[in-house]
Amino acid sequence: MNNLQVLYVDANQLSGSIPQQLGNLTQLEELDLRANYFVGELPPSFMKLVNLEYFGAQGNNLSGKFPTFIANWTQLETLDLLGNNFEGSWPKEISSLRSLGYLSLSNVVTRGGAYDFPDLSRMTSLEYLILRKCSLRGPIPGYIWELKELQYLDLSFNELSGQLPNSISTSLTSIFLRENKLNGSLPGWLTKRKNVKPHRYVDVSENLFNITNSEFNAASDDPDVNTFPGCSSNLPYTKDTCDHYCPNNLKYDELYINCGGKEVTVKGHHYYADENPNGSSTFSRDEKGGWGYSSMGLTKFVNKRPESSIIKDTCDLSTTAAVLVETARVAPISLKYYGFCFSSGNYTVKLKFYDIGSSNKQVYPITHTRVFDIDIQRKNVRKNYNIETAEINADGDKIVEYNTSITSHLEIHLYWSGYGSYPESNGPLISAISVIKVQPPPKHQLSPALKAVIAVSSLSFLALLLLLLRKLGYLGGKRSSKEELKTTELFPGGVYTFRQIKDATQNFNVVNKLGEGGFGPVYKGVLPDGTTIAVKQLSGKSKQGIREFVNEIGTISALQHPNLVKLMGCCAEDNELLLIYEYMENNSLEHALFGPDEEIKSRLNWPTRVKIILGIAKGLTFLHEESKLKIIHRDIKPTNILLDKDLNAKITDFGYAKLNEGEHTHVITRIAGTLGYMAPEYAMRGYLTPKADIYSFGVVTLEIVSGRNSTSCRPSDQTVYLLDSAYVLQEQGNLMDLVDPKLGTDYSWTEAKTILELAMMCTNPSPTLRPTTSEVVKVIEGKTKIKTTSSTVRRSTDEIALTKAMAALSQPSPSESYSTAGPSEATPPISNSNNITNEI
User: Across all residues in the chain, what is the average pLDDT?
Assistant: First the structure.
């Protein structure tokens, strides 16, 4: 290894301090550590690397003062330290590196303020010089403009002052001096660029230059030059400049921009088009809309043509808002959006991101992490924002939301500081911007009379609620079918007209049909505002009637939890009974496990299965223990577990749910549930407690782990259901044989063993030996260990007989989808008991 000359470990996941031992590789000529997670200082042992010609450490988190030992690297030609956290001024010793042709540095901080420009006069071989955001002050030394080989100069985001020379002797093709304090007139060599060779890319925006209208207009017409003075209040010369960009003194309270895309209307909001392909060093303004963008950097060329700053790709989102993330504007280094015409007030800024560029293999055959800073109104709101790992909201979007105050101008800055991706052409990216004024609450105090009205209204509402509960049967009492339907108007979910739902589903077109079950068919629909819904229609042949319809509305409207499906409203018009739910992109767990869709089956890896099991357990915990209304679902099965786009589990179908009455003995005269999932004490004797749901959960868990359908397992021996096979394997000590063979070895043995043993506890014939759902959650999350009994509890003879009898009655049915199947009803003989109660 001592003879190693080249070592490249860039773009890995390396972290911690750089190993001291690397300094022993004294023959190294090239060392590339870029795009990792190294921290701390450069090791002192590196002083021995005297043969280095190339050293790259861009995009790490190195810190401390610049090591003076770099001066020992006398053969060094490239020094790339962009995107680290070094401190202090440039060591004079390093200025002696005469062979250095590429010097890149950024994000240097000082505790005592800015410092003078470093002495680089002896670096006569410099071709690329980047000292961006390095706390530099004072004038740019004259020798910089005399460096014969210099082609690329980036001194942006410093505090440099003074004037630019009237002439230069360099071969500069790229000049970036954005956001300094440079003043005076723009020299002719910078502004008169037509037919100038070599062609130059220039950004001198946000300085204090005396720019004439003709100079600014000429620059605005050039896609590779940016002289926009900016709107910052700390630049007195440009104090009123941005006011001139408001057409007819326009003042607005909201602004929507479809970055990189066409003009569209989404959910009633008009998004301006943003289709200018220029994005290297450009200022572009929408004259009608009173907004613009300012970009900086060097455009990459593809097939000798400049690459567009707009990326387009068709995303896999199903919502109408997907059009906003099918395009994006990208900039090499810096991208600023300006809103020039805002009325004064407080605003909510939402920035929508979707890294479509990373999926475009033709444009970017090798992808890297896209990381950049986000500033709003010159305040950093996200440091090193990573689109790939950013949090996704319920709609599948990646949104940064920030509240800010606007006097007249808004500035949104996306800045690639050197972390993550390289080359620079893979810099900051954004898909859409929305800015909405926050309306202040009324300031007046409530009068005594108004307070009295509110108090009376509250009492009236309470009375209506009690009446509603009574009419529902929770407090006793009977009612007619018309009365039951009329009470749906009192529920918090929205009440839709039949015409609205008919239009949304295209008159219940069969192409929109998601499935059909005991309640009736389920259709996909799209409301006028673009919201996708699932509509459950009560079938005339359904075993469920008006009572179950109202019961489901009442139950689920009172329950809000991430693992419970959201009921958006209902429709009870004429003879139509409809329930409107949030749309779940991945249908039901039944469809995912046993349906024909191989693509979704391939997504059911072990972590996803554990996430689904945990989600069901959390939903049941909420129903049983955490909600104000303690609910027993009574029909937990795969068709009643829906999966969203990220395969998060949500429990649905509450048509037969019941309130849990705590310590009261609860014997049901009318059994509701699905064969194969009902607890034996409930199916045989009508005895209902939350442990009945636990039993069903245990069966579903076995199905998820094994990938086998509980009621379609019919071997030739004594076993009937999947659960019977599980009992046999547990007695033989081979319970792990249940794990789905499709997983191969790609799962956690310990985790699978724990979950299978937990499922067997949940399906214990004795309800008192089953855990609670909160205990289940703790075990799955690893917070507590499973408590096993000393021996396997054998099922009683009558329970085995019942299982076989139920199997004989139950024939395999086609896989239902989208949680559409209503619970089947089984009514075994009920023993005479004084504790029998009427159903709620």
Answer: 79
Beta bridge pairs of residue 516:
521
The residue among 7, 65, 77 whose CA lies nearest residue 36 is 7
Locate all alpha helices (DSSP H) within 622-665, ordered by sequence: none
| More confident site: 509 or 670 | 509
pTM over 0.70: no
For Cα atoms 501, 507, 509, give the angle at the middle one, nearest 5 degrees: 120
In this prediction, residue 456 carries a pLDDT of: 56
Rounded distance between C-alpha atoms, residue 254 and residue 344, angstroms: 11
Classified as helix, coil or strand, 629 is coil
Query: Are residues 580 and 533 in contact, defined by beta-carbon separation less than 8 angstroms?
Result: yes
Residue with tokens 């002719």: 188
- Output the six-digit token pair for 789: 């009994």
What is the structure's pLDDT at 367? Answer: 46
What whole-number distance in Å separates Cα of residue 471 and Cα of residue 480? 9
Is the sign of the CA dihedral 287, 291, 296, 298 positive or negative? negative
Catalytic residue among 635, 644, 653, 724: 635
Is residue 428 within 8 A of residue 330, CB to CB? The reply is yes
Q: How many CB atoms lie within 10 A of CB 277?
A: 15
Q: Does pLDDT of 479 surpass 60?
A: no
Q: Which domains does the chain have, with CATH numbers?
A: 6-232 (3.80.10.10), 241-437 (2.60.120), 479-582 (3.30.200.20), 589-837 (1.10.510.10)
Per DSSP (E only), the strands in 155-218 are 159-162, 174-176, 181-185, 201-203, 208-210
Pair type for strands 30-32 and 54-56: parallel
Q: Which residue reads 């444009």 in tokens?
A: 363
Count of residues making up the chain: 840
Active site residue 635: yes
Q: Which of 330, 329, 415, 424 is nearest to 376 (CA)?
A: 415
Question: CA–CA separation, 763 vs 651, rounded Å?
Answer: 19
Q: 430, 328 in Cβ contact below 8 A?
A: yes
> For 690-740, how does the pLDDT look when each residue is reduced to its tens digit (9 = 90+)?
999 999 999 999 999 999 988 654 444 444 578 888 988 998 899 999 999
Q: Give the whole-angstrom CA distance, residue 657 versus residue 665.
A: 17
Q: What is the pLDDT of residue 334?
A: 94
